[in-house]
Inverse folding.
């Protein structure tokens, strides 16, 4: 369930539009929203005060644009390193979902060198995260795609999709399983017989949600992104487990930093917003 949402609002990008699209979903409307604006540390107290006032104006403008219920919105304006502050506040408010904008560069090393906030938050926070690239058009959420496998993270993504769509009779859920042994891609009834998808489909049918199944072959990241684009997906859900040992969880995952993980590929190449379910592995 999503009862608490943290919007890391920089005043740019499409993160506000993403929140608006989410708040239109019946199961999300009661969620409490925390809007965070981070003020970079300034040299003088006068500069700090000016930036804080500027942040207050930006946040209030966002609340007005989004037409949020004031009783369900809290505002946090804090000074510090944005990537660290977002992680800190996410823990403080015990958020169920972080929404952030992303430059969406396909070069992970370039993103690191540019000190990408979303990149580091993705690495360091165990919270589910919804990334919205600056070059995307955010559509109302009607078509949702979930990348499925046998993992617990995959099941969590499916349950989250069912939570989002359960009261939306006009919605469609696409289930995608990448089978490395498949000789050809499957869809429809043939895909529904896939062992991974058949069990997921049974859960979907209990909610009466329109569902389509796809079994992909080839490279997982490329295939998931392509199917999501072909089905005009509005939101893509993907499990992203943290496989690092506990002692290293305060450090970025080098595989993701270098762009070699599935979740890293999908979130930077998908043509729709990507929601990544996270838990420590």
């Amino acid at each position: 369930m999503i009862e608490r949402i943290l919007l890391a609002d920089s005043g740019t990008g499409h993160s506000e539009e993403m929140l608006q699209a989410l708040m239109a979903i019946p199961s999300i409307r009661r969620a409490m929203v925390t809007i965070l604006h981070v003020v970079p540390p300034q040299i003088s107290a006068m500069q700090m005060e000016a930036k804080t006032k500027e942040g207050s104006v930006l946040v209030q403008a966002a609340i007005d644009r989004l037409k949020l219920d004031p009783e369900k919105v809290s505002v946090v304006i804090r000074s510090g390193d944005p990537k660290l502050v977002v992680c800190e506040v996410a823990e403080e408010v015990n958020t169920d979902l972080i929404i952030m904008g992303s430059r969406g560069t396909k070069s992970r090393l370039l993103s690191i060198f540019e000190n990408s906030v979303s990149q580091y938050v993705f690495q360091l926070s165990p919270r589910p995260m919804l990334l919205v690239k600056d070059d995307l058009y955010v559509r109302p959420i009607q078509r949702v795609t979930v990348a499925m496998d046998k993992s617990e993270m995959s099941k969590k993504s499916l349950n989250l999709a069912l939570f989002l769509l359960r009261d939306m009779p006009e919605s469609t859920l696409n289930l995608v399983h990448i089978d490395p042994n498949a000789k050809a891609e499957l869809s429809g009834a043939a895909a529904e017989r896939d062992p991974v998808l058949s069990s997921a489909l049974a859960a979907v049918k209990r909610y009466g949600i329109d569902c389509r199944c796809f079994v992909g072959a080839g490279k997982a990241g490329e295939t998931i992104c392509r199917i999501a684009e072909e089905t005009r997906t509005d939101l893509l859900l993907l499990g992203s487990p943290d496989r690092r040992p506990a002692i290293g969880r305060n450090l970025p995952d080098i595989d993701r930093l270098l762009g070699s993980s599935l979740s890293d590929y999908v979130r930077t190449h998908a043509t729709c917003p990507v929601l990544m379910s996270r838990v420590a592995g």
Notes: Confidence is low (pLDDT under 50) at residues 106-115, 243-249, 253-259. Residues 4-133 form a domain with the Rossmann fold fold (CATH 3.40.50.620). The longest strand covers residues 32-39.
